[in-house]
Amino acid sequence: MSILNDKKVIIIGDRDGIPGQAIEACAVSAGAEVVFSSTECFV
Amino acid sequence: MMVHTPDMVLHNGTTQTTERIVNPDSEYLKELPNHLRTYEQALSYYPNQVYIGNKTPDDLTALPQPWYDKECDCAARYGKFGQIMPQEEFILLMQVCDVFDLVKLDKNFVAQHKGSLASNEIIDEGILSRVKDGIAPEEVARLVNEDHAEPLYHNNELVGCAARAHDIDVNLSAHVMHENIVSKASSVLALLHVVKSAGIQKEDVEYVIDCAEEACGDMNQRGGGNFAKSTAEIAGFVNATGSDTRSFCAGPAHAIVEAASLVAAGAYKTVVVTAGGCTAKLGMNGKDHVKKGLPILEDMIAGFSVVITQDNGTDPAINLGILGRHTVGTGSAPQAVISSLVTDPLDRAGLKVTDIGKFSPEMQNPDITKPAGAGDVPLSNYKMIAALAVKRGDIEKADLAKFTVEHGLTGWAPTQGHIPSGVPYLGFAREDILSGKISRAMIIGKGSLFLGRMTNLFDGVSFVVEANGGTEPEAAGVSEEEVKGMIAKAMKEFAATLLAQAE
Q1: Which ipTM score applies to this complex?
Q2: Which of A4, B41, B150, B490 has the most crowded CB, counting CB atoms within 10 A?
Q3: Is B335 in the A-facing interface, judged by CB distances under 8 Å?
Q4: Does B372 touch chain A if contact means CB atoms closer than 8 Å?
Q5: Residue B321: which CATH number?
Q6: pLDDT digits (tens, 9 = 90+) for B248-282
Q7: Which domain holds residue B324?
Q8: pTM
């Protein structure tokens, strides 16, 4: 059982690291419900 | 070129303007002024001296990080790639670049600083003649207090303002006009420098492409443009037209590919790609810098210009056959992004990763990004490129770390969005290729399109600059008569050799 199973998650991705969409795909595959996902730029 | 703009950090950077709205009494806002650098400190900051060409990326690599606490042994204002302009001269240049009488300066400020602008090496009479005398300080204060003008400060004193260009049109508000005039003025300064550095005449330039991240237009055509032509006008490029290209931080790489294509197609002989800087990003990571006791390192407006012209048989060339492109179908996974920009174009050209001497992805200064938790952006890119090189068998796994040093660079560019995006290396790349240090450089631009909330897509484009194959320039082409003469000369020499052997 994944630790993310049935959990609500908020995702902030980094455009120079792992983008939100990629984290979202992983979280969903682990059974999480994504309530917010975004990729931000800090440069 | 760069401009040291400490007062704009306080009054125009969005981190600060946002904080002033949501948390006006914050400790950050109170502490921030104590962390601003003087102009002299900005001059002696190592990465700034690399940006204007007095130091090299290799010099920076050899210097242990962090750099903010080290004084560079060169604190020159001018370098082979431009200059570091002080704020007071730049405010005058903003007035010069405003053709709608929106930038109103205190007449005392103009009188005090016009002389220093006149003594600026790159400022000619055409620019200087545009400086207006200014208005009474009481009128400046009235425009700010009663007429929504954006204030201009120097040493924390009100010295002028940018007035709104329309009563109700938000796209012509004082805030937008200020931001756009800063972008325009810094681009103009870069244009003035680039013609001098490249040794061309202003009249030679036929097309200008602006690739900054600002938008100019009114309520009926937000972002209608055209920064390029407006900067060409002030810079005195009388034979140029132009247009704007936008793609967030990927804009410069797109613009250079477009410029090279226009020249290769013969549409224009000489194209200049240019961009000014961005006030909004000043002090962007300031909260982390202040929290950690660092100076505010994001106090520099930056700009750049690149001349792309017909093959002269000597200067490095842009190989339009090796273009990397992030397509709609590429996806956003880091591996997919780097593959599309680096290994896919090399595959198409039959090259190995190691055939590229230096990669220049986004050259953000790690002195700025690491304390803010954003890591070392160029190094992250090099690690991904190196990993792909291992996967392809171009290098051994044991050589991963060596690859990032041998084929990488240490970032020196300010976090001004499009400014660090690949292009800051172009001046050094030209030198490194001409000296034979490397034979090819790959410039990689990446853009965060999702920030515009029109698409979730990422963007990126790359191109390769390589040693000139020695193609004869068009002007040096030979006529039929000259060919006959050359053959006759060769025959004579051959006959003389035979005669000498017979004797």
Answers
A1: 0.80
A2: B150
A3: no
A4: yes
A5: 3.40.47
A6: 999 999 999 999 999 999 999 999 999 999 999 99
A7: 317-476
A8: 0.92
